[in-house]
Design a protein that fits this description.
This protein is α+β, with helices and mostly antiparallel strands. The protein has a single domain, classed as Jelly Rolls (Sandwich). The strands form 2 sheets. The chain has a 6-stranded antiparallel beta sheet. The longest helix has 14 residues. The two termini are 21 Å apart.
């Protein structure tokens, strides 16, 4: 874990560790000042205060959960907040993601801003995020060489609902029914998916300091439990793809397909800079 945070250069052995384990945790990439600005941005976004004249993706504010302890999630925070835009399109994430993906140029697939409310010590599954593979939602793309960057906006561990991963599970390939983000019985999902990973269930917590980032492969199983602390757990999650990533017809529908325009064709690249911006190197 010796990446140079100023130049975002990732040593070869860390790239190898990511390719072998399916996830890798960076050192601190963002300053306390940046984290504080992002936390204030969360407060604004979740109170409907947007930068410019934008709107939330898919009118997600109309779909906020009734349960106050359930996870709140907004897609494409970069559309409505400048701090999120600067984070997900900035060099700290972009260069590290490109290095781990071993590609020269990458685009943003989309982002998520996630607010996991505190349960305050109560026993609840409302804040659980089910064991899932990101690529189960993204298999309309022409490559599995995509990556997720999970940015912690506070010290994060299992007590406040930090992410858990299954080391090496990406090597087992895609399980079509692993689109289980919203299923909250983690034990039942573990029993269901254990056979897929050869019965070897290596559940590892991602312990992060504020400003650290967990990068994981889209085939790597991950999930999280409830936030039993008394403060919300906040994260910005950026998803990236190679710059030449295209559309694979006949697979699961994803809302990003519509940004290809009318009658998308098999192999058509997701290369519209308006919706899938190219990150600077």
């Amino acid at each position: 874990m010796s990446v140079d945070a100023s130049s975002c250069q990732v040593p070869r052995e860390d790239v190898a560790a990511y390719r072998d384990r399916g996830y890798w945790i960076s050192p601190k990439l963002f300053s306390d000042e940046q984290i504080d600005r992002l936390r204030r941005a969360f407060e604004r976004m979740f109170h409907g205060d947007f930068d410019g004249d934008g709107w939330s993706y898919e009118d997600e504010f109309a779909k906020l959960p009734d349960d106050p302890q359930a996870v709140r999630k907004l897609t494409n925070g970069w559309w409505i907040n400048h701090e999120v835009r600067d984070l997900v399109l900035g060099p700290q994430l972009g260069r590290v993601a490109a290095a781990l993906m071993q590609t020269d140029a990458i685009r943003l697939w989309h982002d998520q801003v996630v607010w996991k409310p505190p349960a305050g010590g109560t026993q609840t599954k409302a804040g659980n995020i089910g064991w899932h593979q990101d690529y189960a939602y993204w298999n309309c793309t022409t490559t599995t060489n995509m990556i997720t960057a999970w940015v912690a906006l506070q010290d994060t561990d299992l007590a406040n609902g930090g992410m858990r991963t299954l080391a090496g599970s990406h090597r087992s390939g895609l399980l079509e029914d692993a689109d289980t983000f919203y299923e909250q019985d983690l034990d039942a999902l573990a029993q269901r998916f254990a056979v897929h990973v050869g019965g070897r269930w290596v559940d590892e917590p991602c312990l992060l300091k504020a400003g650290q980032v967990s990068f994981h492969h889209p085939l790597c199983f991950h999930g999280s439990g409830p936030n039993t602390s008394r403060r919300p757990r906040l994260a910005v999650i950026a998803h990236y793809m190679p710059a030449d990533c295209g559309y694979k017809a006949g697979r699961r529908y994803h809302r990003n397909i519509r940004f290809l325009g009318p009658c998308p064709r098999d192999g058509q690249p997701f290369d519209d800079d308006t919706y899938f911006p190219l990150l600077s190197s």
